[in-house]
Amino acid sequence: MPLVKRFVDICLFRNGPQDLPASRFLLGLVIVLNVLVSVFLAGLEADLPQAMLQSLLAPALLAIFLFGLLKFSKHSNRYTQTLTAGIGGDALITVLAIPLVLISLAIPDARAYMGLLLFALMLWEMAVIGHIIRHAMEIPYMAGLGLALAYTALSYRIMMALFPLT
Question: How many domains is the chain partitioned into structurally?
Answer without folding.
Answer: 1
